[in-house]
Specification:
Blueprint (H helix, E strand, L loop, with lengths): L1 H22 L4 H27 L1 H5 L1 H28 L3 E3 H34 L4 H4 L2 H29 L7 E3 L9 H35 L4 H37 L2 H28 L5 H9 L14
Antiparallel strand pairs: 1-2
């Protein structure tokens, strides 16, 4: 097992070194494009978050509280992605303790996104299927509890690895290293645990989204009133599913990437790693303000107002319920 780990780490290091050489020969424009993409959407997320803070009603309604949490989470994830990616490109070694901190928040914020989508879908399900009990079931307190549970569940997987690594080799946390999750894999059971958590995690979230979608569609067809609201709700949940697929692709692509690191050419490995970073890691985090913010008739006018720096006054076109 130790020899296998050393072989994998050595192969990955060779690819990282080749990647650094490639960056000096021209494809640095790819990295710049990815960073600019992330910065643009962090800026958009910041404006959207400011929009939600600008009105008391946005700060009070659970669905906007959950949306604000998603914006902050995705922005933090984008920053962490850029930081870790730049460290990989530059072959930057950091203390293992600092690496554990980076990976903990990177993994937790990554897992937060689909869980947040599931909770938002359940909120829409309750709003459409149980409108009379919506305010009783979904409120500020329940939204806060949900966010707390999201962070707890999302941190368990990597938290176990970090704690186990600390118990087995506490002295190693003072050493410098190339930061990667594989450095915290000591025993075979950790790989099984990691895969098991991922399968359980996304199967559960997918089941929640499908359950919510089906029930909202049924409610939209059977109810004579609020059909427009129900239609928009099940369209939003369908978008949740599409975004979840992008999140799941990260784990599938990660498995392929590790296999390519052992068998394929460095050029192919580099190109696929870049595609993974740009389209699978960054893109889902960039979709949140577009999917949820700009589709909301109450948020969109205010968002456009702040984007234009107050140049043109706009009025909300819908009443918030």
């Amino acid at each position: 097992m130790a020899m296998n780990n050393e072989s994998i780490e050595g192969t990955l290091l060779v690819h990282q070194q080749f990647f650094k050489v490639e960056m000096t020969e021209g494809p640095a424009s790819k990295l710049i494009a990815a960073i600019l993409m992330a910065l643009v959407f962090i800026f958009i997320n910041s404006i959207m978050f400011h929009t939600l803070l600008s009105k008391p009603v946005f700060r009070e309604l659970p669905r906007y509280i959950l949306f604000a949490h998603l914006l902050c989470n995705d922005s933090f994830q984008l920053l962490l992605c850029m930081t870790l990616y730049l460290m990989t490109v530059n072959l930057q070694q950091i203390p293992k303790a600092l690496c554990a901190l980076f990976l903990f928040f990177a993994t937790t914020t990554f897992n937060n996104a689909p869980l947040n989508l599931a909770v938002m879908s359940l909120e829409r399900y309750v709003a459409i299927c149980f409108p009379l009990r919506h305010s009783e079931i979904v409120n500020q307190k329940s939204a806060g509890v949900s966010i707390g549970l999201i962070w707890i569940f999302s941190s368990i997987n990597l938290g176990i690895d970090v704690i186990y690594s600390l118990m087995v080799s506490p002295v190693s946390f003072k050493d410098t290293m190339y930061c990667s999750r594989e450095r915290f894999i000591i025993s075979p059971w950790q790989i099984d645990k990691f895969q098991g958590f991922n399968y359980l995690f996304f199967v559960t979230v997918t089941a929640i989204l499908i359950f919510s979608y089906i029930n909202v569609v049924v409610a939209a067809r059977s109810a004579s009133s609020q059909k427009d609201s129900a239609k928009k709700a099940h369209e939003t949940i369908l978008l949740h599913l599409c975004q979840l697929v992008l999140c799941v692709n990260t784990f599938i692509f990660g498995t392929i990437e590790r296999a390519l690191a052992m068998t394929s050419s460095s050029r192919l490995f580099i190109d696929l790693r870049y595609m993974n970073f740009l389209f699978v890691l960054l893109l889902p985090r960039c979709l949140s303000p577009l999917i949820y913010g700009l589709r909301d008739d109450a948020v969109r006018p205010l968002f456009l107002y702040y984007v234009r720096c107050g140049y043109k006054k706009v009025k909300p076109s819908a009443t918030i319920h």
